[in-house]
Amino acid sequence: MNLIRSACLLSRSASSCIHRSSPCFPSTLRLYTGDTSKTPTEQSKAQIRKISGEEKHFKRRLLSVHRRFADVPENVTFQGQNHIYLEDGQSIKRAALTHEWATDDVLFYSTQETLQSLRVFRLHLRDNAVQSDLIYEEKDPEFFVEVSRSRDQRLVTVNCNSKNSSEVWFIDSRAPFSCPTLIQSRQPGLMYHVEHSEDHLFILANTGPGQEYQLLRTPLAFPSIPHWVPMFTPVPGTVIKDMELLHDHSVFTLKDSQCGLLIQILTSKEPHELKTLQFPQWACDLSPGRVGSEKGRSFGFLLSSPVHSPVRHLCSPRTGELSVIEEDTQFNSFPECNTTRLQAASQDGTMVPLTLFHMPALHQLSKSPLLLHVYGAYGMDLNMAFSPEKRLLLEDGWALAYCHVRGGGERGLAWHRSGSLLQKPKGVEDLASCIQTLHHLGVSQPALTALTARSAGAVLAGALCNQNPQILRAVILQAPFLDVLGTMQDPFLPLTIEERGEWGDPLVSSEHRDNIASYCPCHNIKPQLYPSMLITAYSEDGRVPLSGVLKYVERLKKAVQMYNDGDCADTRVPAVILDVRGGADHFGPEDFHLSLNENARQFAFLYRELGLDHRKTQRKRGRQY
Fold first, then answer.
1. Which of 36, 360, 460, 591 is 20 to 30 A from 209 in CA distance terms?
2. What local confidence, expressed as pLDDT, does residue 295 receive?
3. Which pTM does this prediction carry?
4. What CA–CA distance (Å, rounded) separates 598 from 558?
């Protein structure tokens, strides 16, 4: 299970997965901006003509690579999309954001309104009637409420999380009509998550050194913090990312200082014994998966990277053995792929982890195109699950770099704190240092370097373009959060109140306002040579207001025009392409072919702006294989 949950299920969070369902999708509205001497219609036609042929080419190739990996196991779970449907008169409406059955006829569920989840109900299904009762209501709008269940099915928990504190209540499934019991009241800075086994609570809480997570245990009858007894604290340099509670064992997923994955197994009964299992260098993403095993006595999971398709593994805590289940050598045995873990020295001397995937050796990458990925917000790790699109780029000779900057969660809670609020500019410095370090090592060059970011990751990407535009040639932004200052000054917008713990409150604190104003992408645009940009936004996106994206694009267009109208020696005119699509899904279209269309457009944009010939790239790839 994903026990450690980010306190921002409905934040401007990152996701790069492609949904393989095929519902009807609203018609799209596309507006392309670039040459301001033309009308929007002329601009649109001119930009489409430049890449339409390449789009068709890349869509065929993307469809082909997805077919190659059609049978690999899924390893992506969608947080916040677990709904039930209730009948209301003659209509059926989506009612629950999360839900759990306590018994065969008692269901607990949470509800969502305007991106907030503040209430939990108990639904009792009787012979001739359905009764629904409110059992919990959150009063603080900075908190998000969800329902979950312990692995042993004994407890239903009501989990209340803000950006910097937690509170958990439980209902014993043996007494589903009892009132919820509080485990520990919320305290500023205290984050905790709960599991249950044999009348004991197993609690992951940030009570360890440096306010990082450690495992504690307490009797169910005495759940509050004075009774918590430490069981496991990671060694310095490693942080807990998740925990699976099995029979007589706790299995921890951890990351080391270079973001490498490992598993540690702790026996629950004294004398406690700790075993460590190492993974291959390429392993970047671990997600629990259903693998045939003895119930409660082994841990099955999927191991992958952006370019390695998921491989089923089975871990036996009793013996400490790790085995591979049904590995498909066709998908994962390509020795040409290298995974290099690096560190970049940021401006203040902090070492920032980098993960680089490449086919040629490191010293042969000076002429290779480079695609960088960044997020750096909410304490969330950069998504490094398998992506057929990334695999295609790798096979075309690209180097793919993942920058684990401050503000994300890769190196623990302190890593997040060191890149949030007044420290948010540190993430921009980290990103610049990552790119400069790669170039210094001979990995690509500015004219062949592109950056991609989604949602809140666009804050760092946009700030970098204002501060160091010369180190990039192209940028792709999806559902981008670009007007931080304007958004955080409007308390009536969804998420503004909930996200003050991440960005600050400019309405109350002049220090917060000045800090946001110093890096906000929308408020620091100036006439200079920017990278070309492809920006995809969704007209009804509730998490990122479209008005902020439009404001950013308009200001960027004017700055580009002012620079080109001045006495500049540069002949290159950067493209600024805005693609506004219909719909309210912040994470992109659910329809598979519409998702392919978006990816094909991104590929066509990258190849054009970096001056790459996709036909030569494909012929070269054909000779290599």
1. 460
2. 58
3. 0.89
4. 26
Cβ-Cβ contacts under 8 Å for 263 (sequence gap 6 or more)? 251, 252, 253, 254, 276, 277, 279, 315, 322
Question: Which tens digit of pLDDT belongs to each residue from 118-128?
Answer: 999 999 998 77
Name the CATH topology of 85-233. Answer: Methylamine Dehydrogenase; Chain H (2.130.10)
Q: Which residues form the catalytic set?
A: 455, 541, 586
Q: 3-class secondary structure for 570-623?
A: CCCCCCEEEEEECCCCCCCCCEHHHHHHHHHHHHHHHHHHCCCCHHHHHHHHHH
Give 525-539 as a DSSP string: --SS-PPEEEEEEET
Which amino acid belongs to residue 387? S
The CA-based angle 99-102-108, given to 5 degrees, is: 35
Q: Position of tokens 């540690």?
A: 264
- The residues of the chain that CATH labels 3.40.50.1820 are 40-67+334-624
Residue 616 confidence (pLDDT): 63
Q: pLDDT tens, 496-546?
A: 999 999 999 999 999 999 999 999 999 999 999 999 999 999 988 889 989
Q: Burial of 292 by CB count in 10 Å (0-12 exposed, 13-18 middle, 19+ buried)? A: exposed
Q: Are strands 130-137 and 106-113 parallel, antiparallel or unpaired?
A: unpaired
Contact 618, 611 (CB under 8 A): no
Mean pLDDT (the chain, rounded): 86
The residues of the chain that CATH labels 2.130.10.120 are: 85-233
- End-to-end CA, the chain: 39
d(CA 204, CA 215): 5
pLDDT tens across 532-589, in order? Answer: 999 999 988 889 989 999 999 999 999 999 998 877 767 788 999 998 887 777 887 8
